[in-house]
Amino acid sequence: MTTRIFIAGILGGIVMFIWNFIAHDILPLGHTGMKQVPNAVVDAFKSNIGEDRGMFVFPWVDPKSSSDEKKAAMEKIKSGPSGLLIYHPNRPINFPRMVGIELVTEILEAVLVVFLLSSTRLLTAGSRILFVTIAGVVAAMVTNVPYWNFWGFPKRYTLALMFIQIVGFFLVGVVSAFVLRNRDPVAESK
Q1: Bridge-based pairing state of the strands 83-87 and 54-58
Q2: What angle do CA 114, 10, 142 make, to 5 degrees?
Q3: What residues pair up with 86 in beta bridges, in sequence order?
Q4: Nearest residue to 147 (alpha-carbon basis) of 133, 161, 136, 135
Q5: What are the two backbone dihedrals, phi and then psi, of residue 174, each rounded to the nearest 5 degrees?
Q6: What is the pTM of this model?
Q7: What is the DSSP track for 138-149?
């Protein structure tokens, strides 16, 4: 990987990180569709789940259950409450570590997509930006659509997160098109 490709990825990841900060902390996008759990429900979590931590699904559908049991569970979902709960009885927060992991993740995403871009024969800034943006659309769809479809994540939340991710990749595309503007992959392949 050439130095310029690596630099384009690092700079793109930093720009994506800044965009995510703006989207989540300045704009309301990162919290779209979320609501606060009432204190009485939190108290019920404490008394019924206690110190157990993890991902809880209700109503529970055992993957090994018969088709009749699965149909009965689907009827419960249709007629009553259902959901997915990530529960921690307590969770030590190390905010600098969390931010660091987020930054490294976004730099890695950007480096990987710029590496893919460098493997193409795209010559114009527009085609390079489009390529990276389309990669962002794919990345945004990979988990967000299944989470909306199967787990019932709110549509507004799903669309907002997808928008954040797509814009982030678009910005990586802009940065990489700028940094790689004089790179001619066709000439380099001869």
Answers
A1: antiparallel
A2: 55
A3: 55
A4: 161
A5: -65, -45
A6: 0.86
A7: HHHHHHHHHHHH
Cβ(186)–Cβ(123) below 8 Å: yes
CA-CA-CA-CA torsion for 83, 89, 92, 95, nearest 10 degrees?
Answer: 20
Q: Which residue has the tokens 């990345």?
A: 139
Q: Cβ distance 102 to 17 under 8 Å?
A: yes
Cα dist from 102 to 18, 38, 39, 132, whole Å: 11, 29, 30, 20
Structure token digits, residue 136: 């962002």
Over residues 104-126, the pLDDT tens digits come to 999 999 999 999 999 998 989 99
**DSSP code per residue over 26-88:** ISSGGGTT--PPPHHHHHHHHHHHTT--EEEEES---TTS-HHHHHHHHHHHHHS--EEEEE-
Which residue bears the tokens 């209700």?
58
